Amino acid sequence: MSIFHTGVNPLKQGRVVPVFITINGAYAPYAAAAIHSLTEHVDPKRYYRVIILHDGLNFVSRIRLRNLVTKNVAIQFKKMTRSLYLKAIIAYCTRRQKGAGDFFSSAVYYYRAFIPMLFPLYKKAIYIDSDTILRGDIGELFDIDLEDKALAAVVDKKVAVIPEFRGYVEKALGIPAEEYVNSGVQLMNLKKMRKLKYLSTMIELIREFDADLVAPDQDYLNLILKGDIMHLSPNWNAEPTKDLARNIKLVHFNLFNKPWHYKDVPCERIFWKAAKGTGFYKDLKRQQVAFDAEKQRADHAKVEALIKKAGRLAKSKEPIIRV
Ligand SMILES: [Mn+2]
Predict the structure, then answer these.
(1) What's the CA-to-centroid distance between 47 and ligand 1, angstroms?
(2) pTM of the model
(3) 163 vs 101, 158, 170, 211, 310, CA distance in Å?
(4) How far is the CA of 132 from the centre of ligand 1 (A)?
């Protein structure tokens, strides 16, 4: 069947829904589940392109990810090259890893900051974390009018409920807690982010302050785009809960209780249902079995260390970074 049969030319700029996901080899199985769930909920009359930014994937992972392609969802790979900017970020992450609470000190988190610059053909795009599962059509998110804002995202719920995070965001970053967004789901105004020189501003802030932050690239996102962010309905980046409301379009397994590590966690069923549609199902099941008591303790300790770090930084007299 010709892809033109529906009358929509998918090659025409603006008609394809571009969805970015950034991974390393370890994240490939979760990303596959996320992508499969995406393909299961798309509008059959539209075209989508999932672009996987990665730093090197083995053959098996590439094949399994490529196999997620459908009639109207294309899969594209883009390997990150070691540009000067990426080298600066990797060096920063390496310095941070030596410090405590190195939860987010992986360069993979920063790949999304390169999207505006690496894809000048797109004016607008979606980014999703690999630890998400779709329950609705991502095209609906793409259709939201950004009204000249640089970004649309969901206010971070963990900041509202964990006092240490709230204190950190307000005191150390100088951002009101009810404005601070989670970076796991982003509707990006790429045109505006290019205009604001988002990536080079981030690099300059890293150079100038070399700050030890709690969620570095998410913090930079909030700092640089402060006042230029539209708040999305929480349905587009929802915490996993028992009895998930019907109108929730995307579940984000943020920070703890990852279903591929723990049993009996909220929303595990939608994760495993999605995982079953990928070639990684058995690997994921093995991963869960291998995540023994010792690994669980280490995981909890990591989260606790992160919260402790936030609490320590919440005592800052003034913001750590001045944009
Ligand atoms: Mn996440």
Answers:
(1) 25
(2) 0.94
(3) 17, 9, 11, 21, 9
(4) 7
